User: Fold these one by one.
Assistant:
Number 1:
Amino acid sequence: MTTFLKATAAAAILSIASVTSALAEGHGWKPEGPIKMMIAFAAGGGADTHARLIAEDLQAATGWEIVPEQVTGKGGVNALVALKEMPADGTAIAMVVTESIGYNAAAAKGAGISPSDFTGLTTTAGFQMGVVAKAEKGWTSFEDMIAAAKEGELRFGTMSPKLSDLAYLLGEAHGVEFNIVQVRGGKAVMNGVQAGDMDLGFMAGIQGKGVASGDLVNLASALSEPLKQTPDAPTFADLGVSFNADGYFVFVAPAGMDPAAREALTAAIVESTNSGKANGMITKAFGGPVNIQGAELDALFQSDFEAAGALMEAAQ
Amino acid sequence: MGIWDHVIAGVLAVFQSDPVLGVPLTILMVLGGFLLGITVGATPGLAGPMAMAISLPILISIFGFSNDALLPVLGFLIGIMKGATVGGAVPAILFNTPGTPDAYMTTLDGYPLAQKGEARKALRVAHFASASGDTFSDIVLVVCAPFLAIMVESYLDLPEKTALLILSLAFIASVIGGSVGKGIISMGLGLLAAMVATGEDFYPRLTMGQPSLSEGIPIAAAILGVLILGEVFKALEDIYLDDRSAKAQTGVNVQESKVEFLELRKLFPYIGRSAVIGTCIGALPGIGSTLAATLGYTTAKRRYAIKKSASDPEFGEGAPEGIAATEAANSSVSGANLIPVLSLGIPGNAAAVFLILAMDSIGGFNPGPSVFRLDGGIGDGALNPEMVMAFGLFTTMFVANGFNWTIGGIFMRVVGVMARIPKARLLPIVLLLTLTAIYVQETSMVAVWITIFCGFLGYIMRRVGMSPLPFVIAFILGGNLEATARQAFAATGADPFFLFNSPIALVFILLAIGVVIYSLRSTAR
């Protein structure tokens, strides 16, 4: 009997394996030339590194030629404007953040882009966005920081207009007014906080090592859920702010893409975020891969884009 | 575990890395980087940061992201940085085409000296001064890195940093070149170019609706265009207009002119001062080597005017002291530059930016105050791995210095031969190399057109007697100045007088106004 069970199990595994491998090989879609991968982040940072590692893994796994290229600036809007004009045959994709297609596209009215101009492929990883301060400040909780803010003005570092709005609303909910200092990129916020130019700030995962070593403290989670590293820190909803900084790194292509191409590209990217070098880096920096795709991703873009107006109005 | 255990562990990490062909890998990488750097630096149209930018992704794809990759990769980059600094004097002296803005001041005396047939002497002086300044700076780095950066940072808040940037711009605009007015115009043009498509808004400003400008003017295009293409255009016109003078310029005479020890000894005071100036400037975050070179040159000029004997050449007419002062100052920035990098993670110049990028990408080393903590290890009595890495890094710098003193000297003497190439043949090659380098870096034809446009701008500036250097510095610092000013304004709760409310910032602003007025009065006289 056991032999029979073993044989059946083996057969089942074999058939699953053959089906999956058939799926992997038999998407029936191949790009017509090299794929241009636009990266909306400065070369060498965490976001750029993870995009380049995915490109490498992707190329090794599929044999498609991937050409990564930096198109930075305006919170991903520059990359999106460039992508919109490209052919939708799978030879042009871009890595941005969900905020680029949501808040930033809504705020950059002159750029003329909206979620309907793009085909979402898949997210790769989520932000671990925390409100972070240096341990030296002596604040162990969010309340300590608010108490200090009532004593004297505090400087709050942010890295995008959306986060500046959130910082303002966070202060408003607690009866304090922060001096909000907007800089370029999470790394710049971290430098500012470390150097004492800012008292606290938003960091999207870069704080992990500092928090682990006790140099930095996660005072709050700017997400709808607690931070993986500091689950006890209150979320923005707990703190009376009805908006949050939930967001993901995401690959997009121009609108009107052939569903077969979309499926093949999505599957290949998902595969590379879950294995190899890219997976190691994503797990280290962002707490593991997150793959939102298809209709769910389309809905996420649309709701982010629409929520932008409400957030801007609330922060007026 | 004491500090010495960390020092020893750091040195061993370099010398006991996996041997390749019997040589420790890290040392081999430093040597490779150094040779690449010196070649790149000595080639008109190429510069160190560019080579670092191209090497970094290649290195990471070879070595991967493990902690073992850190020292070989950083060693290679440091090799390039050091090699390019010393090599950068070669095109400045031989062809009057500085590869980097800091080498511009070297052309002022180096090129006249080369035209007198003493190119080798100029190169030897440059090498000696550069290597001395570099070594001095590295020693200061090792001794002071932990304390100095934290001290500087605690005194300079955002308004003070803004004021310091304004002071550096005012200084450079009024001191360089013959006319304060032209210097300020040149600086203003640089700031204007830096404003294109930058800023916090979601729509790109000042692009006149051109999508190709929406990412701003590429930094390499602006700098190489103004500095190199401008010079090439002017020189080509000179050759066209005056065939005879072209023949006279053809081939700088390279005679074996020995530099006696006595002659070198005369240079010591200049090198010493410049090394101190360069080291101090290097330790300030975000200022960079060009200001150091300028300051070194002008202080030396003042001293030289008093001390020189009647037969010595004036500054600007081929005084070895001018080369020594400039090269010592710009080279001594490179070591001290790592003080803000290691202690705060803030880059002081383009080369430091790539070192930080490498550390960030590979991981395992997070520049910041935690680097120099004795209790940074896991568990009691364990070594702090980041501090070990920092001392490993210092070791690679000293290894690179060793190469600098030995191979660097030989190399500088060898490249003297390049001066025999007639200018009419060389200039087109420089032009081609520069445009190719721009295209490789930016991969867009727009960048090439911008470079050529900036080249014409540089040409016009030279024709009307305006120094292109304030343009270049203002272009580099412009974005930084705007961002810091914005942040200072926000951080002080939208106080419009943020530049005048703290004593340090006020002193900087008064000095900035003072230096312009003083220079105006002294030129009027």
Note: Strands of chain A lie at 35-39, 66-70, 92-97, 118-126, 130-134, 155-158, 179-182, 200-203, 216-221, 248-254.
Number 2:
Amino acid sequence: MQFFLEVLIGGLLSGVMYSLVALGFVLIFKASGVFNFAQGAMVYFAALSLVGVMGKGAPLWLAFILAFGIMTILGIATEKFVLRKMVNQAPISLFMATIGLAFFIEGLAPLLWGNDVRALEIGLVDEPIPYLLDSFNIVVSSFDLTAAGLALALVAGLALFFQFTRVGRALRAVADDHQAALSIGIPLQHIWALVWAVAGFVALVAGMLWGSRNGVQFALTFTALKALPVLILGGFTSVPGAIVGGLIIGASEKLAEIYIPPVMQSMFGGNFGGIEGWFPYVMALLFLLVRPEGLFGEKHIDRV
Amino acid sequence: MIKNVRKLAIAASVAAACLGAVLPSAYAAEEQFFMLPSYRVGPYGANGNAFYGGFVDYLNYVNMKGGIDGVQATWEECETEYNNAKGVECYERLKAKAAKAPGPIHTMSTGISYALVDKTAADKLPLAMMGYGLTSAVDGSVFPWAFPLVTTYQMQASAIVKFLKDKEGGSLAGKKIVFLYHDSAYGKEPILALEAESRLNKYDLVQIPVAHPGNEQGAQWQRIRQEKPDYVIMWGWGVMNMTALKTAQKMGFPREKMIGSWWAGSEEDVVPAGDAAKGYMSATWNVAGKAVPVIADIEKSVYGAGKGNLSDKAKLGTILYNRGVSAAVLSVEAIRTAQAKYGKGKAMGAEQVRWGLENLNITDARLKDLGATGLLPAVKTACDNHEGSGKVKMQQWDGSKWVVMTDWIEGNKALIHPLFQADAAKYAKEKGITPRNCAAEAKK
């Protein structure tokens, strides 16, 4: 039981890290109805900018502000050079544009900052909390707990922002219908630039935490792969959905990795480990059969 | 008259200029072309950058010293991003150019080299897999065009077991070893050897795969914590390595009990992990540092002349840079070996280079002549032994640099070689290959 609990807690905390990446997707989707393929690349670019600025001698807090500035510029540039021409185009066209953007950012980041793997020290030690280890023999990392706290604070802040501010309401209106939003005077260009900058901020926080844990390197772009099943589960338009989806995916993939392979091996022989790469996708797929819009996603109804 | 003389002078000048433009190419030194399906961007770009930087720097160095017995080395890179499909595409694009006088092909990727083993055999181009690739290609009777030079994954795994056995006072009986591996062709390659060693040395082997790319290993390390192994042998690559080190720290597993393959033992793997990497060990078939004369000389002459390939000179002397130099040293020596038989000062054809690779004899004395003493082990290949050494050293990260812990350690040849010979025989049967008679060829 103690081991089960340890795996479960570890999975839940990992899930929060997935949620962080998923949040960036949700933000863009809410504002433009587009799945932003470049979110993983943005996480990489943000982390590389942060560590790059720190490499020039800036302390963490200053580097964070400057990196956020860089992400804001990237957001404004994306709106100006990529999205502005795509207003009222089919979502698939916007999606294709974000694929191009992903390749562009993946090339731009190492061009600006080099492609070396870098360490990122943010003052959090990834070691077990002694009290939990000594009293319950359960490993819970102080780093993971802090990351979870940060993610929850971010989610709470964003949920409030969307629900209770004029900008938040404008964002939702834009997501619903570009043209209708424009017709009632919502400045679409500003809204898009703003939301890409906020998505850049979320990417920066995710990149900082993932980069601090695994090093800042190209593989950060793969974090997007972890966010996809989270989005399917939580719904593409729900901020709290991203966090709940992350928790479910994180916990289930870890439990599956521990408990399924021995069963498979006893049945078929061979080695069945390493399933956490695809298990979340299978789970998301099964989930789609039951609830296509995700746990918290908006049910799409068209007038016919 | 004057007009005609002027015309004649102009015509003569033009003719001379044209002749001047033609002559150098007509009498240009012969060239040996190295196709380099390299990767400098993408998830493993940092690793490829150091390796191919070292490789190109050595070719430049050789050219500056007069070439390979007068033959100039030329090369062309093609970006693979460590992607198998792109690797094959690069090979197809460059193979015509390499047909006349090729250097050994280095993909630095087990997956790409797997994809090229059959193709290079059909096209008759030499494929080098230094420290990676298909282990059974050691048997040159079945794989005449593939060369897993220096050592292979299976011999390396065996050498690691031997090292751990010595650490444990000569016996691993009753011990538990976890094999944590990248769930890919690369990661699975040494399993056969570790299982054979486990039967021989009576230790318990627990295999734990990590899904690509390996940036999340919580469940794997929770299982390791539950298993309570004496050692963890890690076959990681890229982000998997530092994630493993960091997660081991989180789980409280001592890094002094972790030992990695040579692809999990470069500066790129440990520096980003910070304190979590301190005490971690790995195997290596080349040493780090600039103390090796040839590395110091490259810095002086190639970088001194502004011809260095690396934009970041700090990478000079790192494990992967020195590995690139080592790979180039062996490639150039193979061409020199061929030249000694087929004609000095000439570019070598594919079959001749293949012969050179199969008849390498790089002794310690030759390594000393090359300024590469201690950089890599002595190598002696043959038709039935395309590996030529099978030796590795063990090194430990002290927090700032790799410290060599042992002399060259050779894996259990008597145990491992029959394994891949059997595998090669199976491969020959499947593909309908009639193996060469190495014994008869040796007598000729």
Note: Chain A touches chain B through 46 residues (CB under 8 Å).
Number 3:
Amino acid sequence: MTLLRTKLLNDDFVITVEITPPKGPDVTSMLDRLEELKYLTDAVNFTDNPSARMRLCSMAACKLALEMDFEPVLQMTCRDRNRIAIQSDLLGAHALGIRNLLVMTGDHPMWGDHKESKPVYDIDSSIMIKLVKNLNEGKDLHGNSLLGKTDFFIGAVVNPNAEPILPQLKRFEQKLKLGADFFQTQMIFEIDNLKRFMDFANKFDRVKVIVGLIIIRTKKMLNYIAEKIPGVIVPRWLIDKVSRLNDDDIERFGIDFASEITMEIMENKLANGVHIMAISKVDEVKKFLNCIKIRV
Amino acid sequence: MIVSKKKKIEELSPYIDQYNSYFLIGCSECASLCGTGDEEAILELKEWLEKEGKNVTGWFIAKTGCQILGTKREMSKFKELIDKSDCILVLSCGAGTQTIMEFFEDKPIIPVNDTLFIGNMRRFKEFEERCRACGECFLAITGVCVVTLCPKNMLNGPCGGYKDGRCEVNLHKKCVWIIAFNILEKRGDIDRFYESLLGPKDWSKANSPRDYVAKEKIN
């Protein structure tokens, strides 16, 4: 059983971070960053060509992380692989020792650096959950028997910021019923959005939710997220507030802001953990952890 | 209808510059409605070619360019003029162009248009793609075609990328799943829809090339 699964099942608060594999074969800086992150987080997610920008694959990054005693979460999208490739890659990932998955539909190629590529989307993320569930039961998507069973811990995504919210909640419910073991949310800026979602999610038993957060570093970063990241709505008051701060104050504010949301989640037992997205320096993760006094 | 768009002159030129005499064929069906295969389109191209010092030997508009034998019959009347031409320029969709190609393997057959999609016409010469001929129609379930109108072919509801109900890929367009969801809601079908999983889709029905012999009867 993975540490992530154990902690979530025990209702321990989990901290995970997101690492984007490098654009190129040189993994030195990714490994350096991982070395610095050691013992700080419960798991590390490796993204699957985020924003449809071509990078080193998540599976290789997960394998390198395993060799350093990390617990990786393999992110897999439906954008670039048909059902044959998805299953084949997942069987390969399992053989390499990868157990935690986070499956999602994936940003469209129009956001990326290969805009002319053919989007695959053979299956959607709901069907992908069914697919992984089947692999765990020793059969492929179409019911053919497999030599052995996988033991994946299945993560799915949900966007509590979505407007209108009901179609998003129904998909969450569908993913849960199909067998998602835990959920990771899109990045949250307003706790009320999270509460609105959790009010719905708590109608179901044993729902495990890790809340996506970012540590705001610069005005540029916040504006980029507001404009370019699908499904993310940065509230106007936050943009205005950050725009009035100088650069040093923004860094401090970013850490305080992420910490305050995390503390509120922890104190009110709103969710089972937080996931820090789009990190740049490990130092900011350390400062954040120091603020919430989980680790030094 | 099949929506087609005139190639730009600079796109067409590399294919036709080396020839001196041309025979032009239009189509009275979809290409005429698109303004890419009607008399006006033919005469415009003829005028341009003649201004360039080229010779247009003749032209005609096929009744239905994708109807192979009918077009062959119509074309036979122009055999002499076609024989005298270096090449044939076809002002139709890709299907119509290939009808002509079937009869003249030794003569260059050049499409004047690019074929875009199956389109609905909202206003005159304004087309929207609604159906991508995927071979397995879900419209009875979703009301609008999510296979065509969702850039990610989502079958079970929206992705997480929409903002204020607008599509992540084109913010000027409403997310089709928000439209479909409203339809399901109005019909009281939301719970029924989510009782099961739609898909995985049988994409083998959309794999090209396809053919079909309409001899089956609906009982």
Note: The domain at 3-292 of chain A is CATH 3.20.20.220 (TIM Barrel).
Number 4:
Amino acid sequence: MTLAHKTPLTPLDDAFTPEGGKQLPAPLKSLRDIRSKAITGMALPNRRTENWKYSSRYLKLDPELAPQTQGTGDADYRSVEGVYRLVIRNGVVDLDSSNLPSASGVDIRRFVDLDDVAAQSVAKKLDTTLDHGTTQLAALNTARLEDGVLIRLSADTSVDKPVYIQYVTDAGASGSNYPRVMVEAGQGSKMTLVEEYISNGDQPVLVDSVSELLLDDSANITYIRLCMDPANVRHIGATGVKVGANAKLDSHCIGFGGDLRRHDLQVRLEGQGGYARLNGIALTQDRQHYDNHTAIDHVVPNCDSDENYRCLAADRSHAIFNGRIHIHPDAQQSHADMNNKNLLLSTNAEIDTKPELEIYADDVTCAHGATVGQLDEGSLFYLTSRGIDRDTAATMLSMAFVHELVGQVPLEDIREAVNTRLTDFIEASFRRAAE
Amino acid sequence: MAESNKPEDFVKHEYEAGFVTDIESDTFEPGLNEDVIKRLSQIKGEPEWMLEWRLEAYRQFQEMTEPNWQKVNFEPVDLQSISYYSAPKKDSDKPQSLDEVDPELLRTYEKLGIPLHEQKALAGVAGAGTPAESEAESTGGGGAYSNVAVDAVFDSVSVVTTFKEKLAEAGVIFCSISEALQEHPELVKQYLGSVVPRGDNYFASLNSAVFSDGSFVYVPKGVKCPMELSTYFRINAENTGQFERTLIIADEGASVSYLEGCTAPQRDENQLHAAVVELVALDDAEIKYSTVQNWYPGDENGNGGIFNFVTKRGMARGKNSKISWTQVETGSAVTWKYPSCVLKGDNSVGEFYSVALTNNYQQADTGTKMIHLGKNTRSTIIAKGISAGHSDQSYRGLVKFQPTAEGARNFTQCDSLLIGDKCGAHTFPYIENKNSSATVEHEATTSKVSDEQMLFCRQRGIDPEQAVSMIVNGFCKEVFKELPMEFAVEAGKLLEVSLEGSVG
């Protein structure tokens, strides 16, 4: 397992000159050094690496990706109403462009601004939500840690508007960046966190992002991840979540394919009464790729999880889903449900799915279902016979396929925006196929 | 009987086939090298090409490393410490009839309940058309096993094959693979390794190099095999591995149903069983392959038992052909097998029905592969796993649609039943679809023998042990109904035996 490469990436020391001259606090720096050492000389995941089996062929870390993304000053800040905005530009936290909540109980800070005590506490918690055996590239993120954002909610704080993180890559920028976010949600706190990746460039860019969410008892976090930027941006993202007793995670991950798109979502239910809902939609077209890997660990008894992922693959694209539910010994009375449905929209597309169950307790109910199919000819005929052209009919049916999940996205504005973008994306792919 | 009412307390494994037969045997010194292979080939009087084939397999094997991706833990097998050939010693070369078979050996089969001797019909070994055989015909399969031809493999050699003559009348060739190499070398040469190539995987390569015996079946064009065929495998000698090779060919329009069973003595050390089974179905042919696997699973502390590393694959080569695997796996300390179907012919069908039961410290990583190549190919997978004690069980399956598999379909269902809270049940289904007109559905559930079910049975005066067995049998019903009738009964009983007795 690992990360060396035929053409080695630029050594860490050369790659980073921290913005504004600020240095990471010592505890975080030493964590970075440890990771950095750990990945030195490691090989990139290949076809034989189980969790990269279907995706390793897209994992081409060309030397041009090695340098850190440099800003060109030409950024596309999409304005979003009614939210607190936090901008991470080219991997670097940009507080000036952000609009942060001022209420007490919400503390948002750059890693570089942390004092040693706070940094020590963050360093202890970083990397604890992800299994580095299966998220090798999240380790690379820590190894290249330069800055990050800590969002801390005090007990019983309820953030009135969603916190919207925009990961912006400047037009014309290239290279790689490693954004890092950590959320500590105190007891009984509540927040909606949205992450959106935005870019309008056409240069190859690698975004290797890691977000970690620590939910204390009874915390309630809604997590929305929108990875819908252009294909040239290669994404390797990992989201790790620890869910405490009676806490709740409501996750919605929506993504469009690209040259390389990978999202690992790992949720550990660590307190009794915890609940996680994982919804996901992935769309691919052209020669795009999208790989969703999820893992839900039921560590203690009496937790529930529901998972529902849908993928649509058009043209010559390749969509992958791998879901794992792991019921630990003694995690009795666990209820886990995983559902993965896939639509192949073209003969040349490929969908691979692997819904796994790993169960070590007997008094549990676990079920998973997976299907891969195509649009129903009968339904298409029904619509076309009523004067709807075939592309429109196919788009309607495809949207119907994801409708249930889109409908569950909790914020209306986002839901509508997602709906429009999905429709455009699907329509475009049918139109192209028809040409 | 304990007071307890928990299902796991009624689960205990008593292995009934664990005796050792004390007969003289010729056994090779432990060790694996080219000389051993040459000697093996020489003893069997094999043609030159066969030896070359084995040696090439051995060369490929030496390049390989033991796979470690399976979800099982075991001490690696020291291949140099086992013997690659062991045969019951006989004065003559091979018994021509049961009369010539060592009575000790016959008693072995009798103990096992293998109907070699008790069935009068089996006198037919000595010659066709004996009164006894006609009697068997007249019963028309009414009595259990009365219409089954058996090939018995004891350690490394096939001891006896029954009903050969009767089968020959229908044109069916049913014999040991060593015999087939002598009498039908052209068929063996044509098909051996055509489904599982020599370099397929570590244990298949090992098997290709050192396989000792196994069954060979050829059903000619248009022939429906008049009776069930069956092979019975037994490991007896100490420090030996069993490497059998089975090759079944159903020519155009032919059909055959085949069953294998296996047992081994109770020993403290682990013994290796690495078999290869190849099935070839040509146009419109049908092969049904059933396994009742009852190798020694080790004692209740996980000592001893057979390592069962088997490669089984069927090639539905012709149009409209069909291959059906049914397996009941209750034995072995570690099982690692994936009976597969390559659906090459258009409209061909693949089926996999499996019940796997693990108890104590048994581990099983089993499942199937359905590779869809032809148009309108269909496959069905029904896998039922039952884990009890400290055992660990995984279903691992692959369903793959190549771009050529227009209109193909798969349905998969895998259910697990857990008995007790110390066991594990896992599912790793791989689904790879490269054809938009192909449809695949996969479902899996996990459940336990519920208190409600137990209460329901107890209220009706059914004792707990029987209740567990009933519930488990009900859970497996879909698979048992695929087994040939006689064996379905045996399989049901086997599950009962495996679950019998109370611990607490």
Note: The radius of gyration of chain B is 22 Å.
